[in-house]
Amino acid sequence: MSLLYSLFTLASLALAQGNSACPNILSCHATAPVDTCCTESPGGLVLSTRFWDNLGPKQRWTLHGLWPDNCDGTFKASCDLSRAYPSPTALLEEFGASGLLNGMHAYWKGNRGDDSLEQHEFAKHGTCMSTLSRPVTEPITFNKR
Questions:
Q1: What are the protein's GO molecular function terms (predicted)?
Q2: What is the extent of the structural domain holding 40?
Q3: Does 29 qualify as catalytic in the annotation?
């Protein structure tokens, strides 16, 4: 469960860390602000699904993906392929995010045994998340080791 929290944090909270004015409210709540650096828009509901219970450590489950939902059961896909990364592993290694990367490799397994699931999920769903859009991500830096 901590990996799920880490992925969600990376996807929606950590990337808004430069904006300390982000309120702590539900994104699909009627009073949610329009500031898409703080709140996912449109919608704001982030879904996670469980697939492939035969992959990964025993007594654990794998995560298929996290994606924004329009709060009506629909979602957009492949919104901005200029932000699709060919290798999430290389990107996270570059920024020294080894803890997150180790968790992703242990619990976020695709059926090919490489990072193709991570790449696919970000290209399909992550590129549609407003909290991951430029210029929101531009001033954010990771600590390099």
A1: ribonuclease T2 activity; RNA binding
A2: 2-132
A3: no
Is 142 part of any domain? no
Q: What is the pLDDT of residues 128-140, one digit of tens each?
A: 876 666 554 444 4
- Quote the pTM value: 0.57
User: Quick check: is 110 in a domain?
Assistant: yes
Residue 75 belongs to a domain? yes
Domain tally, the chain: 1
Say whether 105 is catalytic. no
CATH of residue 44's domain is 3.90.730.10
H/E segment holding residue 3: helix 2-8
Indicate which residue of 29, 118, 121, 138 is catalytic. Answer: 121
Unique residue bearing structure tokens 């898409």 = 36
Of the residues 64, 93, 118, 138, only one is catalytic, namely 64
Euclidean distance between CA atoms 68 and 82, whole angstroms: 18
pLDDT in tens, 1-50: 444 444 444 444 334 444 455 666 555 555 655 555 666 666 555 555 55
**Catalytic choice (40, 93, 105, 125):** 125
